[in-house]
Amino acid sequence: MSVREVHFSAQEGGLKESASAKAIEEREASWAADVPKDESGLWDWLAGLDGANRSSLLAHCVSYGVNALHEKVDRYGGTGVSAHGLRQRLAQADRLARAVNLDMVEAGWRPTVDNYLGRVTKARILEAVREAKGESSAQLIDHMKKTDMTKEAERLLDGTGWLPEPLRLAEPTVESADGENPAEPLPDFLADDEDEAGDTSDDEQPHTVAAE
Predict the structure, then answer these.
(1) Model pTM?
(2) Is there a domain that residue 155 lies in?
């Protein structure tokens, strides 16, 4: 058995310093210190673990293969992820997130210029502020240049608990009569690149949002 480890193609610079990343590093170091280096000793050691520790080790190893990466689908049937494959991936990731009651706000994530606001369009920045603070707050910044808008939006969103769609805990889907989950449309941000391609004012960068 093996686990295919999942890596981000791009990630925000401070991710490795986050509380979650450090917790994973500490857990890895703790297990590495206990696991015997020789194969025969390894199996004896595994057999001697109690159920709780064995399950904890298995969960730690498998967690490296959990893939909740949001990415553009391959519309031309190439080697990239298909729309169906992406829906299945996200549905499974959402189910796992609900099972462990994942809360990205409690995990320490908040929208900043570097990790989100500077990577999306002005329309999405205004949408975030509108959702978190109301229309009046969005109107306060809708006339600003992109650079100024991102900074002010970061200030307005601080402490609100607002999360972009990929980081929200999804509600369970209702199964159809045949036991299959109905096909859900992909999140808007995975299909709107063409619509927003012309909005390149103020040096906007392509956005990458991922959750693992």
Answers:
(1) 0.67
(2) no
